[in-house]
Amino acid sequence: MKNFSKLLFLLLAVAIASCSKNDKIETVPLRDYALQYTADLDSINKFIDTHYMTVTPELDVTFAKIDASAQPSIRQQSDFPLQFKTVTQGTIDYKVYYINFREGANRQPTKLDSVYVTYKGELLSGTSFDQAQTPIWFELDKVVKGWPEIVPMFKTGFYDNSGDQSNPTSFTDFGAGVMFLPSALGYYGSTSQSGSIPLYSPLIFSFKLMELRYTDHDGDGILSKDEVANPGDDPELYDTDGDGTPNYRDVDDDGDGYLTKFEIRENGVITFPTCPGGTISKHLDPTCH
Fold first, then answer.
1. pLDDT band, very low/low/confident/very high, at 207 (cuts 50, 70, 90)
2. Residues near 209 by Cβ (< 8 Å), separated by ≥ 6?
3. pTM for the complete prediction?
4. Cβ neighbours around 251 below 10 Å, total
5. Which residues are CB-neighbours of 50 under 8 A, at least 6 positions away?
6. Residue from 67, 51, 206, 55 nearest 125 by CA
7. 63-75 pLDDT, tens per residue?
8. Residues forming a β-bridge with 177
């Protein structure tokens, strides 16, 4: 891996423009998001229509500009169909193109979990700015915004124990794909510490999803993905007591003054008990504890 910190979420409200002789820092407003998205989408579409891709049996991918031999473009090729997901940020619906090389065959992460991945990050120019050829762990809610939107659409693989037992990077049937991110789902008006990612750059990430760890952000004994009313609900939107802190980060989900981690236990065992005559767990019922 060239630089782990490059993938970490670094978006800032402003970018430093210049300093006066009195060391007064001036700032430059960020570009209009809607206008920048229009420009980003145009650049991504042009890349997809003027480049072809080569996918190896190991599901590594490379891109090259179409030449006189007229290879099918990324959009035209049919081995791995180009797909897209609409991602809403603020008032803008972003069209995020992605390609599924293999879905994966094991467990599926949510946007709140940690994933064990290999990856490569590239600019549309073909410049590689970051990569990890052996798997590393990332917390999906702490990286660029595009990752928690696309990676959870894939599944992990299985550890391959048929070969070298000392090699923890050997997995089979893992998910693998590539995503094309508008700059607002990457670094937007910020750049990497080394300056290798220019401002407002659309990004390409290819990745392989090996393993995951389900996360318990508030340490209450309930996995963050499960702090919802119904399986599959978005944990970021579920706030029982309406205090502005979603349950997965709230140590007292119902706001009754008693910690969730104690209200879900009975005789020290997690059983999600209800109050007499009640129908929901104590940790979601502010009238009893």
1. very high
2. 104, 109, 115, 116, 117, 151, 154, 155, 156, 157, 174, 175, 176
3. 0.84
4. 12
5. 65, 66, 73
6. 51
7. 999 987 779 999 9
8. 100, 207
